[in-house]
Write a structure and sequence with these properties.
Strand order of the largest sheet: 2-9-6-1-5-3-4
Number of helices: 12
Order of helices and strands: HHEHHEHHHEHEHEHHEEEHE
CATH class: Alpha Beta
Bound molecules: zinc ion
Structural class: alpha/beta
Helix content: 25-40%
CATH superfamily: Alkaline Phosphatase, subunit A
Number of strands: 9
CATH architecture: 3-Layer(aba) Sandwich
């Protein structure tokens, strides 16, 4: 069920902020109406917690071409959306836009660099409202760097496996209002061997499998709480010479991403 007008990934942060009653101070893209409507139908409109899973480089075309590989993600979500990324479609630029809610020209990361953002982010909006936030990510990656220097917790590990174990254990402890989890394994494998190589597709399957575990843990651990969750990649990818993969261009393969969203109403 897509919204008629395809929205940008800049709608993600403002949507979560609106649902948690903690709007940004500065102007951003508007929240995504389909997601507000979903939360309204399931919880009356506000949520207690959010869990955002950020697998890197999962393009919309992968979802269209390999729907069976996404079946478990779709099954555990209420909505599947095609969103537009931002240019240049590279990781730090895109995640900066997702969490600031603004275009690159405004937040300032306009190339593959990873400075700490000074622009207001979702984390800042939630922290101001007294919410507890955590990032769980791999060392050296964009999400581990550009959102530093906030009064929140950063769990940075050398491997995706360690990140995912920690994310599940944090969920069980119920210690955060927002948890952001990053996995870059599909991205690194598709760069090395191509987006449709078995090597890369196995990482894609692992991303979907982890999202499924995450949602199951949300439903198990968050009894009585209303939790908004999403599978939210930053940009897509395409095949280049030498059977390798790339992204960063203003083309449909790089700019259209598949997002899944759901709301657990605490009764499941
Ligand atoms: Zn990326």
């Amino acid at each position: 069920m897509d919204e008629p007008l395809q929205r940008c990934i800049t709608s993600v942060g403002p949507t979560v902020a609106a649902l948690m009653g903690a709007p940004y101070e500065y102007g951003t893209d508007a929240p995504h109406q389909a997601l507000l409507t979903l939360a309204g139908a399931k919880t009356g409109g506000t949520i207690d917690r959010a869990v955002i899973y950020n697998p890197d480089a999962v393009a919309w075309w992968l979802y269209e071409k390999y729907p069976a590989k996404f079946a478990k993600a779709k099954e555990r979500s209420d909505l599947t959306l095609r969103l537009t990324s931002v240019m240049p479609s590279v990781t730090p630029v895109c995640f900066a836009s997702m969490y600031t809610g603004v275009q690159p020209a405004i937040h300032g990361i306009q190339s593959y660099t990873k400075p700490v953002l000074t622009q207001e982010t979702l984390f800042d909006a939630l922290l101001r409202a007294g919410k507890r936030c955590a990032i769980v990510s791999t060392a050296g990656d964009s999400i581990s760097k550009i959102f530093l220097q906030r009064r929140m917790d950063y769990f940075i590990y050398p491997t995706v496996a360690a990140v995912n174990v920690k994310a599940l254990s944090l969920l069980k402890k119920n210690a955060y209002d927002l948890i952001v989890v990053y996995n870059g394994n599909y991205d690194s494998r598709m760069h090395a061997k191509g987006p449709e190589s078995g090597y890369a597709l196995r990482a894609l399957e692992a991303n979907v499998a982890f999202y499924r575990r995450l949602v199951d843990e949300i439903r198990r651990s968050c009894g009585g709480q209303r939790v908004f969750y999403g599978f939210c990649p930053d940009h897509g990818c395409h095949l280049i010479d030498g059977r390798r993969g790339s992204h960063g261009l203003d083309m449909a393969e790089d700019m259209n991403v598949v997002h899944f969203y759901g709301v657990s109403d605490g009764r499941e």
